[in-house]
Structure prediction request, 145 residues.
Amino acid sequence: MKTELRRLGVLLTLVLAIGGLLAAPASAGTQSTEATCTGWDYCWFTWGRITAGDCTMDQAKWTLYRNGSAKFEAVITSSDSDDAWLMWPVATDGNGFVLGAVTHGGDPKFVRGTVENQWTWWFDAGSFDPQFFDRINGMRLTSHC
Prediction:
């Protein structure tokens, strides 16, 4: 029992520390998905519809490559003008622990403006540390609009 409580305490500390490092807004929503990259040259992660505030993202797909490059695509919209979709993607291991962020020019935040009531394709690229590619088992998107 004491061992389990210690493990939960360590896990909670890690979650809080990682959340602080990503500096995502408190109102942001987080969505996760799983796949295994081990033994492949690339792997991909897909999500269903994600909503945050007035914004909606659909058909989201991250493709991660063994060399540390990453590609993203999705369609986004908002019911309001002058909105922007903000996203913080991270790669996780089989236990859900964060291996590292996918970054855009060194920044872990990806941003794309929306057009009121119009679905728009969002294509983007990023990178991550290729050393942990074989340990990737999932991705987590924290989003805000």
Remarks:
- The chain has a mean pLDDT of 81.
- The beta strands are 29-34, 42-46, 50-52, 55-65, 69-78, 84-92, 98-101, 110-113, 120-127, 138-144.
- Helices lie at 2-22.
- The longest strand covers residues 55-65.
